[in-house]
């Protein structure tokens, strides 16, 4: 049985800017509630003591069922738990993180814990994730946009070099060779930047937090559609749900999605279709990335996730493969306790499936 030193706990709470509470779950009232709880919820603590329901009324409507299930989980688990949810006010939202554990004394059940206002940190993290996701997409867009003009410059320089070589003008021949080399070097530079950024995801532990998957995926597709690639491919997102909440490392998981979309772009002809879809089931969420591109040859399918050299293919416009992307995709999905697979037919297209537990 867990013992609680109530006097020590209350003394800590009286001095803390974070919220401290002891809630008698059996009687549905607070044994202790410090002033900081009132500051975070922007309520009078005495009113909350009288009517604990006021706290629940401030919880964002989209998060109420989440909060209720958290209480149930904590009571059943009998271990400390950490949860994050939102509070809704007339003109703003707040994010709060609750660390709570259950104390059972005979027939009486208590929930004891602390509350931290994480609004500023959460907003900063969301902003950083958006910047990081858009940076990765921008790198992919840049690689695709530069491939064509640099490739044409390289081809033109090569053609000119053949003609100039007949004249014996060494200076001109060397200049054209320099142009060829610089075009190739810059293409490799952009691709190496993309590969290096994605490779980082395989060596850093994930840190999952509750996130709206629909919003995240819709934002990725929106960014692609605003780019030149969005005008060359029909890229869209679909989902029957307005919100799907999951515990994710958003930054790393969006790199998975970005890499799958990028691969679809490489192997889908101009004006082809690429569709990102998310659907929620009872105990899982299924995300698919589908295209109507050239498909994956059957002899390459078995080793696709194993980073085998023979599975590497240039894209339809000569785009290079990083050589390790699919292996990292699988690793990140598995770090989320999920699984990934695909179906593909030559000339019809490819669909990747990612199943994540709720």
Automatic annotation (TrEMBL):
<feature type="domain" description="Histidine kinase">
    <location>
        <begin position="141"/>
        <end position="358"/>
    </location>
</feature>
<keyword id="KW-0808">Transferase</keyword>
<dbReference type="InterPro" id="IPR000014">
    <property type="entry name" value="PAS"/>
</dbReference>
<keyword id="KW-0418">Kinase</keyword>
<dbReference type="Pfam" id="PF02518">
    <property type="entry name" value="HATPase_c"/>
</dbReference>
<protein>
    <recommendedName>
        <fullName>histidine kinase</fullName>
        <ecNumber>2.7.13.3</ecNumber>
    </recommendedName>
</protein>
<dbReference type="Pfam" id="PF08447">
    <property type="entry name" value="PAS_3"/>
</dbReference>
<keyword id="KW-0902">Two-component regulatory system</keyword>
<dbReference type="InterPro" id="IPR004358">
    <property type="entry name" value="Sig_transdc_His_kin-like_C"/>
</dbReference>
<dbReference type="InterPro" id="IPR036890">
    <property type="entry name" value="HATPase_C_sf"/>
</dbReference>
<feature type="domain" description="PAS">
    <location>
        <begin position="5"/>
        <end position="78"/>
    </location>
</feature>
<dbReference type="InterPro" id="IPR013655">
    <property type="entry name" value="PAS_fold_3"/>
</dbReference>
<dbReference type="InterPro" id="IPR036097">
    <property type="entry name" value="HisK_dim/P_sf"/>
</dbReference>
<dbReference type="InterPro" id="IPR003594">
    <property type="entry name" value="HATPase_dom"/>
</dbReference>
<dbReference type="GO" id="GO:0000155">
    <property type="term" value="F:phosphorelay sensor kinase activity"/>
</dbReference>
<dbReference type="InterPro" id="IPR050736">
    <property type="entry name" value="Sensor_HK_Regulatory"/>
</dbReference>
<dbReference type="InterPro" id="IPR035965">
    <property type="entry name" value="PAS-like_dom_sf"/>
</dbReference>
<dbReference type="InterPro" id="IPR005467">
    <property type="entry name" value="His_kinase_dom"/>
</dbReference>
């Amino acid at each position: 049985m867990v013992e609680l030193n109530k006097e020590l706990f209350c003394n800590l709470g009286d001095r803390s800017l974070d919220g401290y509470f002891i809630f008698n779950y059996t009687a549905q009232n607070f044994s202790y509630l410090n002033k900081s709880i009132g500051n975070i919820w922007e309520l009078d603590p005495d009113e909350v003591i009288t009517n604990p329901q006021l706290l629940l009324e401030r919880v964002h409507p989209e998060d109420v069922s989440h909060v209720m299930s958290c209480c149930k989980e904590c009571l059943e688990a009998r271990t400390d738990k950490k949860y994050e949810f939102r509070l809704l006010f007339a003109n703003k939202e707040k994010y709060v993180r609750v660390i709570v554990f259950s104390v059972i004394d005979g027939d009486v059940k208590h929930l004891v814990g602390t509350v931290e206002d994480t609004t500023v940190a959460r907003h900063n993290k969301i902003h950083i994730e958006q910047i990081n996701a858009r940076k990765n997409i921008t790198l992919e867009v840049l690689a695709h946009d530069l491939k064509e003009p640099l490739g044409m410059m390289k081809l033109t320089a090569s053609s000119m070099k053949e003609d100039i070589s007949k004249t014996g003008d060494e200076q001109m021949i060397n200049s054209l060779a320099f142009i060829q080399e610089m075009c190739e070097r810059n293409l490799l530079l952009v691709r190496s930047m993309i590969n290096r950024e994605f490779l980082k995801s395989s060596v850093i532990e994930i840190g999952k937090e509750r996130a709206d998957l629909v919003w995240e995926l819709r934002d990725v597709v929106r960014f692609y559609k605003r780019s030149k690639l969005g005008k060359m491919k029909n890229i869209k997102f679909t989902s029957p749900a307005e919100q799907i909440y999951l515990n994710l490392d958003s930054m790393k998981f969006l790199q998975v999605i970005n890499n799958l979309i990028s691969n679809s772009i490489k192997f889908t002809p101009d004006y082809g279709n690429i569709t990102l879809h998310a659907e929620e089931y009872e105990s899982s969420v299924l995300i698919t990335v589908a295209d109507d591109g050239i498909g994956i040859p059957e002899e390459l399918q078995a080793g696709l996730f194993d980073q085998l050299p023979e599975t590497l293919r240039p894209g339809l416009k000569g785009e290079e493969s990083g050589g390790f992307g699919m292996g990292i995709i699988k690793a990140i999905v598995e770090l989320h306790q999920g699984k990934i697979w695909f179906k593909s037919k030559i000339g019809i297209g490819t669909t990747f499936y990612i199943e994540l537990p709720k």
